[in-house]
Amino acid sequence: MTRNPPFLPTPLEAAALLLYPIILTFGTLFSLLSPQVRNAPYFPALQAHSQDPGLSPSYFARKSNVFNVYFVKRGWAWVSLAFFVFVFTHPAVRTAQQKTRALARWGLVTTWWVLVTQWCFGPALIDRSFLFTGGRCEIAEAKLEAGAGVSGGDIFTAVACRTAGGRWRGGHDISGHVFLLVLGSFFLLQEVGWVYLNHWKRRAPGGVIELRDERSVIMHDGAVKSATVEGERDHSEGREAARPRSAWEALALGGKLAGGVFVLSLWMILMTAIFFHTWIEKLTGLLVASAGLMSAVKVPANLPELVRAKFNTAKANGDVNFYPTQVAVLKLESVPFQLRFSPSLANKPKGPPPASTGQDKKARPFNPFEDPPPTALVSELQPDHRLVLNKFAVVPEHSILVTRTFKQQTHLLAADDLAAAHACIRAYHEHDGRGLFVFFNSGEHSGASQPHRHLQLLPVESMREGLPEAGADGGAEAAGWTVLADRLAGAGGSGGGGGGDVSAELPLATFAERIAGDAGPEALRSAYIRLYRRACAAAGLDEKGLGDPAAGDDVPAEISYNLGMTRTSLVVCPRVAEGDVVRSRDGKEVGRLALNGTVLAGTALVKSEAEWDALRADPGQLWDILGKVGCGTR
Fold first, then answer.
1. CA-only gyration radius of the chain, Å
2. DSSP code of 228?
3. Which of 458, 450, 294, 322 is nearest to 383 (CA)?
4. Contact at 8 Å (CB) between 364 and 629?
5. What is the pLDDT of residue 139?
6. Does 278 or 605 have the greater pLDDT score?
7. Is 476 exposed, middle or buried, given 0-12, 13-18 or 19+ CB atoms closer than 10 A?
8. Which of 138, 205, 258, 336 is the most buried (most CB within 10 A)?
9. Where are the transmembrane segments (predicted)?
10. Cα distance between residue 577 and residue 596, in whole Å
11. What span, in angstroms and rounded, lies between the C-alpha atoms of 391 and 320?
């Protein structure tokens, strides 16, 4: 029996998110139906009921209650304390790499908390939204009119307003309590919740409700198993520690503290839902917290192992067609170029026929990315992408990054497309230093085969398979092969941009930039748009007629092009043809070489032995074809 690798979030995590709107809805309905709450005086300016103990509907309706003062008001400190105690004391978080990644996740969520509630290049987002919707500090304005010496800056934040003795009134006040409690509690749930799953499983084996840790890990033998098998192991001494004697012991101090903070957070969310704020203010608090939790692209840290395990299983079961290749390295000027030959690929099966949608409707083309089968799905990458295996692979572990909803392959890439691809590249690099090459084909001359937007991912380690070792026949050339995109970006690109030595040696225009290893979505898209505009200019388009391609991603591309990406390089190559004929020594046409985005890795693929022999005998033909498919260097 095989186990699928984890999807992010897991189904159980996704279900847990529903807990928050359920609590808020229940609390709001309770406040409307309870006579005690409904009849208590409510003051919109305070977003609360009367604070007089004799008139307040409950102890928890008073802002002075001990849980509000010492827990909610210091909520992020409690969340951080529970998180740090868990990370640095629980045996399940044992390696420096695990701790570093956990701290990075805490840093991202903490940054969102700061921007929303504390400071966002001035007033926090909560204060900015209040002012934007017509809110103001009433008494502070009166003091300004009276010349009481209150500066204009004093009315831009709720804290400054209260300090000046004013009332923060009139605008939409996002519930900071709901935001904080949802953000903190769900963050702890994601980090620590799986420990509790193991706790309940041991405590009540064979129960009516079986809660299972849905995350998976890759064992040293390649087996994919439940993360539960790793949950109690301690390798800090190079050996496994004894299993905890009880479920309570297994939670350890970190798990117990985090559980207490989580439960108290849920209780205070319920109290906020019943006694404080309007329903729309509580809803926006929930939405803003959810945006912070789900906006970042989440990629499994062990992505290379997940892809490898999924590929090996699919290959063994016949769910993936793998076509072995022979490889030679050709020298084009001083640039080493891989030429691969796969005779079996000529017999590649065609996709299913178009799906019929009725007698009066046109047949709908088959879309392999619309609903990929479980055997092909590697992982869901929140919020907008999924990673699937390439069903027809020439390079082992070839995967494809696709949008979850249909987007046009011929439209410009969005920032989240580039960010998702770069996140996968970083996951490979951070796992054990492995490289990943990403390419994108757009337009009729680019080698694109599917209209559903997708980027393709090739492990560089797999791209080296079959290359002769240095010192063997042809080994000196093979040893010099590296991903071409990195060489192009290091040289600065070509084509009207003052390219360097490598790009100047190629017969087609390429445009490249170095990118930061931790580049964000907007930085990636800005670089992409700059390169795209240069490629359009090389193709003869007037830049003034391009409009503003940076305005959005729902914009058709004006040219055919290929894109290549590595951790530190981004390259765009404009295309005017998909390929050209290959001829034997006597000038006879023996086939046609088609090139896609792998050309930016420095590779080409042929399907017939005649093409293979002809190009190895005359590498100059490959040079000539490169010149015909691109715009030419300028």
1. 30
2. G
3. 294
4. no
5. 67
6. 605
7. middle
8. 258
9. 12-33, 75-93, 105-126, 178-197, 257-280
10. 10
11. 5
Task: Tell me: do 311 and 458 sit in the same domain.
Answer: yes
Strands 436-442 and 454-459: antiparallel
> CA dist 597 to 78, 414, 442, 450, 522, Å?
50, 18, 9, 14, 23
- Is the per-residue pLDDT at 239 higher than 60? no
Catalytic residue, from 277, 385, 445, 454: name it.
277
Q: How is residue 488 written in tokens?
A: 């192009």
DSSP symbols for 73-105 = TTHHHHHHHHHHHHHHH-TTS-SHHHHHHHHHH
pLDDT band at 253 (very low <50, low <70, confident <90, very high): confident
Q: CA-to-CA distance for 135 and 461, rounded, in angstroms?
A: 58
The two tokens of residue 98 are: 């695990």
pLDDT for the residue numbered 230 = 45
Residue 539: inside a domain: yes
199 is catalytic: no
pLDDT at 474 over 50: no
For the entire predicted model, the pTM comes to 0.66
CB 415 within 8 A of CB 553: yes
> Annotated catalytic residue: which of 177, 385, 398, 454?
177
Q: What are phi and psi of 216, to 5 degrees?
A: -130, 160
Domain residue limits at 608: 303-346+369-629
Does 416 or 102 have the greater pLDDT score?
416
Instruction: Name the DSSP class of 412.
Output: P
Closest CA to 307 of 194, 416, 439, 462: 462
Identify whether 9 is part of a domain.
no
- Does 386 lie in the same domain as 262? no
Give me the residue label for tokens 């088609």.
Answer: 594
Q: What is the mean pLDDT of residues 465-469?
A: 81
Tell me the pairing of strands 335-341 and 603-606.
Answer: parallel
Span of 69-78, 95-104, 123-132, 138-147 with lowest mean pLDDT: 138-147
User: Do residues 453 and 385 lie in contact, with contact meaning Cβ atoms separated by under 8 Å?
Assistant: no
Q: Could you tell me the two tokens for 2?
A: 């095989």
**429 given a catalytic annotation:** no
User: pLDDT digit string (tens) for 361-372?
Assistant: 455 677 889 888
Residue 591 gets the label, from left (phi > 0), alpha (psi -120 to 50) or beta, of left
Looking at the structure, tell me whether residues 387 and 463 fall in a common domain.
yes
> Cα(195)–Cα(210) distance, rounded to whole angstroms?
15
What SS3 class is residue 392? strand
Would you say 511 and 531 are in contact if contact means Cβ atoms under 8 Å apart?
yes
Residue 161 lies in a domain: no
Q: Are residues 253 and 334 in the same domain?
A: no
Q: How far apart are the first and last CA of the chain?
A: 58
The predicted structure's pLDDT at residue 247: 58
Q: Which two tokens stand for residue 365?
A: 């083309």
184 in any annotated domain: yes
Cα–Cα distances in angstroms (integers) from residue 323 to residues 347, 579, 590, 633, in the given order: 10, 22, 21, 34
How much is the pLDDT for 468? 75
